[in-house]
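Figure 2 data, in text form.
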Amino acid sequence: MTIATVARERDLSRLDELPVEFIDELPGATDDTETATTRNGLGDSFDRVQSGIQGWLRHWEPLRLPAFTAVRDVMPDGDRGRSALQSAPAQPDGAVRLTASLYDPPNREGEPLAWSRNWASLAVLPPARESGRLFYRFRVASRLVLDGQASLSLVSTSVNFGVVADAATASPFEVTGFATPIARPLMGVQCRPDQDASATQTFEGSIAVRQGETPAMAFVIGTDVLFENGWVRVHEGSSTWIGPTEPGASGTIEFRYVPGAMLRLLGRLDEPHVA
C-alpha cells in the first residue's frame, strides 16, 4: 500500500467524524442574523435555469408566407370551362379562395368535365447562425361549401410541400417527392344540397443546416373538380390555407433553429456532417 493510498483512506475516515468543535461555535438565536441571511455561499438555485429551458422549448419564431400565385390551370375546352372555376385575388394570408358555378346538360356526350388548379408560395428563412437543425411546423386546412345535383360531382383539395437547407444551392420545388401531396385535406367531396365539409392536419419536421445557410420552403395548394350531368355550385367560404399549429389567423408557419451542441447534449444528432 502506497503512502498516497494510506493518506487518502485516513482523510476519508475523518468524514465519519462530526466537527463538534465547529458546531459548538455556531451563533445563537440572539446573535446577529443579518450576516447569515445575506451570505451567498449556497450558490444560485436551479429555478432560473429551469425556467429558461422551459421558455426556450415553448418559443417558436413566426414566418409570414408570401401571397400565393396561380401556377397551373387545367380546364375543359371553350369559354365555359375557363369561366366556371374562379379564385379571389391572392392575399398574404396563406389562403386560396374559390367559387364555381357549373352546369353540364344531360344530353352532352363525352368524358366528365375536369378542372385542376394550383397556386404556389415560396418562403425564405433567415440564415442559420450556427450549424444544427431547422425545425418547422404548420397546419393545413380546407373548407368546401357546396350545393348541387349531378350524376358525378367530386371536389378535392391538396397541398404539396418541399424544404431545402440552402436556397442558394437548391430549390424546394425540386426536392424528391415534392410532386406527391403531403396532404389531401378533403378528398372526393360530393356536391350535395347544403354540403359544408372541412378538415385540418398538422405537420412537423426538421432538416440539417450549416452555419450561414438560408433554408427555403415551397407550398403548392391545389383544387380538383370532376363533374358530369347536372349542376354544381362552390360557394364563397370555400378555401384552403396554411397557418400555425395553434388555432388562429392563417398566413404564418413556425420555425426554430437548434444548435448542434444542444442536439449532441440531448443525444439527438444523427447527421454526421453537422458540427
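Caption note: DSSP finds six helices and ten strands in the chain.
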